[in-house]
Specification:
- It is built from 3 helices and no strands.
- It is mainly α and 89 residues long.
- It has one domain.
- Helix 1 packs parallel to helix 2 and helix 2 crosses helix 3.
- The protein is elongated, with a radius of gyration of 14 Å.
- 7% of the residues are buried.
Length: 89
């Protein structure tokens, strides 16, 4: 792999990791401190989308879970939609 492509890949992985951390903290009740634009969800790689779906399922079904962002239902609907503009969730 060319060093330039490796550096691009490393930066993309870092951005994805930070985005997933922000989304997770947002869902866990820290929506003001870690805001997430709903359109950023399409930037997540497939494995992070699966983790996010599991987190959202837990947050919406577990009786002790505190719902974090005010628009959690929008995140839930986007995660389960078949909309091709968002990705194949």
């Amino acid at each position: 792999m060319h060093p330039h492509r490796f550096c691009e890949h490393a930066l993309e992985v870092k951005r994805g990791r930070r985005l997933f951390a922000r989304i997770s903290l947002n869902c866990l009740g820290y929506a003001k401190e870690y805001p997430v634009d709903i359109h950023e969800l399409r930037l997540l790689p497939e494995e992070n989308r699966a983790l996010l779906q599991a987190l959202l399922d837990y947050k919406t079904t577990h009786p002790d879970a505190r719902i974090g962002p005010p628009y959690l239902w929008k995140l839930k609907n986007m995660a389960s939609s078949e909309d091709s503009s968002i990705g194949n969730w």
